[in-house]
Amino acid sequence: MSDIYDSAFRTILNDCHRFIIPVINEAFGENYTGNETIEFYPNEHFINQQEQKNRERITDTNFIIQGKHPKKYHWECQSTPDNRMLIRLFEYDAQIALDQGEVLNEMLIVDFPNSAVLYLRCNRKTPERYRYRIQTPGGSVEYNVPVIKCQAYSLDEIFRKNLLLLLPFYIFSHEGKFSEYESSEEKLRELQGEYEKILDCLNQLERIGSIGAFEKHTILDLSNDVVQEIAKKYKNVQRGVGDIMGGALLETEARTILNEGISQGLSQGLSQGLSQGISQGEGLLATLMSRLFADGRTEDAKAAACDEAVRKKLYKEYGLTAD
Fold it and tell me: What's the mean per-residue pLDDT of the chain?
């Protein structure tokens, strides 16, 4: 799988880990509320091979959800169906169980995780689930391994089921139409409309407090990264979706800095008058952003949104002061 896709999956799990809970509910039919504690475990596991150097296996994620009864989970994200996926998955599961196992009263106790696969791409042969059957001298054990197909979910379904973890990969559902989007402005506009809908829905979720500004920023940032990677050969697609995601990112960053400016203005206002302090903090940054956009200096605006030193330099360049 592309490092970009793998990194996006790990990043959204790390930075927005509560997003995994609705996906767990979807895959395993659980009823977690979203308020449960999630405990993540290391993803690196070393598989012992006789007469060979130990081989490192890196899982995508494994964790415990502390619900009414603690449950262990293991998820793998795969960009394309792979007929060896089930073998690798079991290998990971066994190593996770061994790494966290214990010996009590001369008995080895291992706890296998609830495992699932997220496929970013799928086809007619992609199964709805995998299945393990483990034959042992003491009897056999069988259980299912759910498969989540990212391309099977519409935008409405993603937001209705709160499957926000899938949003950075939504572009995969349009991959087969990239050639159309590339050659037709009308078709490209339809794709842009879907991403405008994503942005509108995220803004609404932020307004009502369902997600935070950082979580929204993470979704937008990763969505943009995935689009730029998957559409490398389709510049119009990259630009068409990238403009929406990039503009939203800039707006989010600028708003964060604007709030910081207001906060600084408020601090000044403690000694100089609240109204003057707010005016200084808000007006200075707003004026700078306006000047930069008017001059077509988008990259400088992005830099100013993230770097105080750059802002100070640009304030000086444009002759802007708090006086």
Answer: 83
